[in-house]
């Protein structure tokens, strides 16, 4: 039965955890510290090989669904900053809890790699944005995996890939067809140095968040939804 199967799975996990905890405690007692490299590498290898956190295409529809989507990081730097794991840890705890309580959990990860952050990083480093984005994504992925988050890496997406943004374009065209997307002249935050309009959150004390360039308010035609 499903109940018996779930119970067996929990028992197996509990046994593994107990064994690992015992090993860790023994090693810690001998060395005076927790052997991060040994324990973490072992479990990360196990999760990757067994696709522990993969959401199957065919699911048990009698189970409740739970969708946990983190804000995708901008791969526009040499690596994660402390704010990334701070936020991702909370959603990972909830996603793991939901799996343990019988939910079908979808917990993917992706990269917000299409726009000003990627462009500015490429300009600052003097390299093509695709090259910097690919390299940064690889580094970010490595760091997230080393932290042990329970993402379904088979569903990884990048907003700069055609197979992703073709759907955002499709959605926009549907909004346009229904008259829900239109052009209007409105006051905006314009940055002459960056040559683009900035959101309010991207302007700090009259300067652009990226580059500290002067920002002015001016009326311009914009797409509105």
UniProtKB/TrEMBL annotation:
EC number: 6.1.1.4
Any one of the GO CC terms: cytosol
Domain Aminoacyl-tRNA synthetase class Ia: 43-204
MF GO annotations: ATP binding; leucine-tRNA ligase activity
One Pfam family hit: tRNA-synt_1
SUPFAM superfamilies, A to Z: Nucleotidylyl transferase
Cited Gene3D superfamilies: HUPs
A biological-process GO annotation: reproductive structure development
Ranges for region Disordered: 1-31
Superkingdom, natural source: Eukaryota
Oxidoreductase recorded as keyword: no
Keywords: Aminoacyl-tRNA synthetase, ATP-binding, Ligase, Nucleotide-binding, Protein biosynthesis
Record-stated family: Belongs to the class-I aminoacyl-tRNA synthetase family.
Protein name, as recorded: leucine--tRNA ligase
Naturally occurring in which organism (per UniProt): Micromonas pusilla
Lineage: Eukaryota, Viridiplantae, Chlorophyta, Mamiellophyceae, Mamiellales
């Amino acid at each position: 039965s499903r109940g018996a199967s779930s119970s067996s799975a929990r028992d197996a996990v509990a046994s593994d955890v107990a064994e690992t905890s015992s090993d860790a405690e023994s090693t810690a007692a001998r060395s005076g510290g927790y052997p991060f490299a040994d324990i973490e590498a072992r479990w990360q290898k196990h999760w990757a090989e067994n696709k522990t956190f993969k959401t199957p295409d065919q699911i048990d529809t009698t189970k409740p669904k739970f969708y946990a989507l983190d804000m995708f990081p901008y791969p526009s730097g040499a690596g994660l900053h402390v704010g990334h794991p701070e936020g991702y840890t909370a959603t990972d705890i909830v996603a793991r809890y939901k799996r343990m309580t019988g939910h079908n959990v979808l917990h993917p990860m992706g990269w917000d790699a299409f726009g000003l952050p990627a462009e500015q990083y490429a300009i600052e480093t003097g390299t093509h944005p695709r090259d910097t984005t690919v390299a940064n994504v690889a580094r970010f992925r490595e760091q997230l995996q080393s932290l042990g988050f329970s993402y379904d890496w088979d569903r990884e997406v990048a907003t700069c890939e055609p197979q992703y943004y073709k759907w955002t374009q499709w959605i926009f065209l549907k909004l346009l067809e229904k008259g829900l997307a239109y052009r209007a002249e409105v006051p905006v935050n314009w940055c002459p140095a960056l040559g683009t309009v900035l959101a309010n959150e991207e302007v700090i004390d009259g300067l652009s968040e990226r580059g500290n360039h002067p920002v002015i308010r001016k009326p311009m035609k914009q797409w509105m939804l």
